[in-house]
Amino acid sequence: MLAGNWKMHLTIGESIALARAVVEGTTGVTGGDVIVAPVFTALASVAGVLEGSQVAVAAQNVFYEDKGAYTGEVAPAMLRDAGCTYTLIGHSERRKYFHETDGTVNARIKKALSAGLKPIVCVGETEEEREKGVTEFVIGQQVKVGLYGIDSLEHVTVAYEPVWAIGTGKNATPAQAQEVHVFIRRLLGGVYGGAAADSVRLLYGGSVTSENIGRLIGMEDIDGALIGGASLKSESFIGIIKTVSGG
Ligand code: PEP
Q1: Residue burial 87-115, b: 16+ Cβ < 10 Å; e: rest
Q2: Tens digit of pLDDT at every position of the chain (247 positions)
Q3: What separation in Å is there between the alpha carbon of 207 and the centre of ligand 1?
Q4: What are the Cα distances from residue 126, in Å, to 82, 133, 228?
């Protein structure tokens, strides 16, 4: 799975143009899921462009209620209505700037799943936490609390995104990423059983480029990537997709 997080970039027109370029550039590429996550205002237009293609649409966030007096929020069924199949949940920028917690992440995941929206749950430690040696403790909490009460991993994807690697150009080494992915998979195995943990997709995110994706994806427990900056240009995103698909 390769998911492009466009963050708060691109107008509707620019999003449509990028979506068209991604479809053109990936025609004939098979064997995995390609996803783009535009801003809310561009979701429906991008979904229209991607209809019938193998590229799916994700929202960048979702609220944990169905409807009501929640000014500024968007419910899962509304995102489905706009053409979304997936949604990011708990991105570190949401946690940092909008005070999202593992508890609200959990509520969002539950609500998304109940509306048929597949969550891509983001977890990751800060630089300070890594330096203090508490990476596994932090990731463990985020995974356990985030997924608390969720019976099945069938529609869940987890993205390991070390906060210090997002948008910094400083990506985790393949070995560092693999180490945390193994930790997450073991943790999930303890709760959901080995078969479910083996089939859940674990993405790495943090300064992924067409130059470094080959080494990351070569690691046994890295099943894809969540890509920010490099997904905003069709050449680099398509370069990443082609490297991974061998096309
Ligand atoms: C992200 O937005 O999730 C991300 C990983 O960003 P970048 O690739 O720019 O580090």
Answers
A1: bbbbbbbbbeeeebebebbbbbbbbbbeb
A2: 999 999 999 999 999 999 999 999 988 888 889 999 999 999 999 999 999 999 999 999 999 999 999 999 999 999 999 999 999 999 999 999 999 999 999 999 999 999 999 999 999 999 999 999 999 999 999 999 999 999 999 999 999 999 999 999 888 999 999 999 999 999 999 999 999 999 999 999 999 999 999 999 999 999 999 999 999 999 999 999 999 998 7
A3: 6
A4: 33, 11, 17
Residues 93, 125, 161, 181: which is the catalytic one? 161
Q: Check if the beta carbon of residue 114 is closer than 8 Å to that of residue 86.
A: no
2-245: in CATH 3.40.190.10: no
Q: Which residues contact 15 (CB under 8 A, 6 or more apart)?
A: 6, 38, 39, 42, 45, 46
Tell me how far apart the 2 most distant CA atoms of the chain are, in Å.
48
Within 6 A (CB) of ligand 1 lie: 5, 7, 161, 166-167, 205-208, 226-230
Strands (E), the chain: 2-5, 34-37, 55-59, 86-89, 118-123, 157-160, 201-205, 224-227
1, 5, 210, 212: residue to mutate for ligand 1 pocket, most atoms within 8 A of CB: 5
Question: With the CA atoms of 98, 43, 10 and 228 taken in that order, what torsion angle do they form, in degrees rounded to the nearest 10?
Answer: 60
Where along the chain do its domains lie? 2-245
